[in-house]
Amino acid sequence: MLRSLLLSAALAFPLGAAAQTLDVNLGKPGAPIQPTMYGIFFEDINYAADGGLYAELVKNRSFEFPQDALQGWKAFGRVEVRDDGPFHRNPHYVRLQDPGHPHKWTGLDNEGFFGIGLKGGESYRFSVWARVPEGGSASLRVEFVNTASDGEQQFTVQEHITVASREWKQYEVVMRAAQTDPKATLRIFLESRGTAVDLEHVSLFPTDTWMGHRNGMRKDLAQALADLHPGVFRFPGGCIVEGTDLATRYNWKNTVGPVENRPINENRWEYTFPHRFFPDYFQSGGLGFFEFFQLSEEIGAEPLPILSCGLACQFQNDDQAAHVPVSELDPYIQDALDLIEFANGGTDTEWGALRAEMGHPAPFGLKFIGIGNEQWGPEYPERLEPFVKALRAAHPEIRIVGSSGPDSEGEQFDYLWPEMRRLGADLVDEHFYRPYEWFLSQGARYDGYDRKGPKVFAGEYACHARGRKRNHFYASLLEAAFMTGLERNADIVHMATYAPLFAHVEGWQWRPDLIWYDNLRSMRSASWYVQALYSEFRGGRVLRATADGTPLCGAEGQNGLFASAVLDGDRVYVKVVNTSAEARPLTLRFSGLKKGASVSPAECVRFTSDRLYEDNTLDAPTQIAPVRGAFSAPVLTPAEWLAAEAARTGAPARKPTRAELRSADRIVDVTVAPYAFDIYVFTL
Ligand code: AHR
Question: Which single residue of 8, 210, 301, 543 could bond 222 by disulfide (Cβ 3.0 to 4.6 Å)?
Answer without folding.
Answer: 210
